[in-house]
Structures are given as C-alpha cells and as structure tokens.
C-alpha cells in the first residue's frame, strides 16, 4: 500500500507540474481578441454629433435630455465584421460616436493590432483628419467623457499623421517622458527629460504628441502595439516606441489620485471610417528588458 501511495503521489505531482507548466505557457501565448462573431466585445453608441457641439448633454427643444442610443444597440451597423482574404476584419463606419469594448478587463499585457483607414468621414470631422483610438484601462460606465461616448480611460491615439499620440479620457491623467529619438539607446538615454504630468489634477491639458511619425502610407495597414505593466505604458507604431508614460491614474470624486492600471479595451467610432484586424494580447509577468530601459533615470 505504501508503494502504491508513493506511486500515486508521484503521478499526482507530475500532473500538477504539467498543469502549471501548461498554464504558464498559455500566459505567454498571444490570445486573439477578434473573431467573425465579435464574441469578446460589446457595443456602446452615443449620439449623431452635430457641427458646433460643445460638450454639453444634447437636449430636446423642451429641455429634456436626449438619451444616448446605449449599449448593444448598433442601429446603423456602425461596427461590423467583414471578410478580407479569409481574415476577420472589424469595420468601423464612424457614422455615430461610440465604441466596441472588451467583455474582459486586462492588466499587465502586450497588445498588438493593425489599423487601416477607410474613405468616409462624417460630421463634425468632414474637414478634419480621420480619427479613432484605442482606449485602455477603461473602467465604469460609458459616456462620461466630452463626447459622451466612452469610459474613463487612457488613449492610444489613432489619427492620420498622429498615430500613437496620448490623450486622457474624462478625468484620467498620466506622466509623459520626452526625449530626442536619435541614435542608439545610449544616445536616447543621455537626452531624456523628466516625466511631465498631464491631465486631470495637473496644470496641463491631457494630450501629448508622439515623438515621430511612423504611420504606414495611405491604404496600407499600420501595426500598433501597446505595452502596459503596472502604472507604465508604451505606445509603439510599426516597431517604433513613440510614447513613454507612467503613473497612470484618475482623479476621484474626493479630488485624490487613484491608480488606473487595469480595465477594458475600447476601439472608438469617431466620425471616420476605419478598419482593425489581427487584434491579439499576451500577459506579461514583467516589463520586457527592451522596454524597461525607457523608464530608467
């Protein structure tokens, strides 16, 4: 019986070891987030915004507040899946402000996706650059921002000629590091600047331009990457780091800063036609060495 017990114990140990190894392996694998049924996403639509909108809640003539379209009511097929050479591609018409957002929250991850512009634009961006965005660390209800369309979050800007800019959404804030992106890492390290606070609770508005323009030519796919670990994040465009950020937070109702390090992902509909594909994510156990150096003093 003792021999049998030892054998069973050894077998159980091996099973646990294999399970742990497989669990660890899965964490290191890229997980696709986009399929033909959009099974990992939900929808929120705001309003058909008009030219001259000033951020106020839209109202009827009698003063009543206009209700937004709301959750999972894609009345105009703003978000649809199309097949492109056998690949599932998310088409965002842009006709109504809103977003698709993941059902799951994420923390400590590396996100990759590809984006390409369509041809159409809508009011109020007819004479402006095409615009969209990847919003991360998204929490709470939708519609709390200026456009009444998105959750409190941080933004990886997706805009013509501004791929990788940083924007705050609602009352979020972050610290951005500026540097001269020339030469090798040793050169970059010698020209880095201190982190500068932007957004809610600071003296500066919540946006910052990316360091360089690495967007692909018109009509081609641009690969963008978002690396988030603890309070830090990096915006990467076609393999180039264009934004270095840390101390992700938001300002609570009591006026105090609250860490903002996990949440859902949102893809914006913002009055421009845009396509997304190859959306995938991988968990991080630590900030990769190739990126950690961007945060050294």
TrEMBL record:
UniProt domain 3-keto-alpha-glucoside-1,2-lyase/3-keto-2-hydroxy-glucal hydratase: residue ranges: 29-282
Domain of life: Bacteria
Name this polypeptide is given: DUF1080 domain-containing protein
InterPro entries named in the record: AL/BT2_dom
Organism of provenance: Pontibacter saemangeumensis
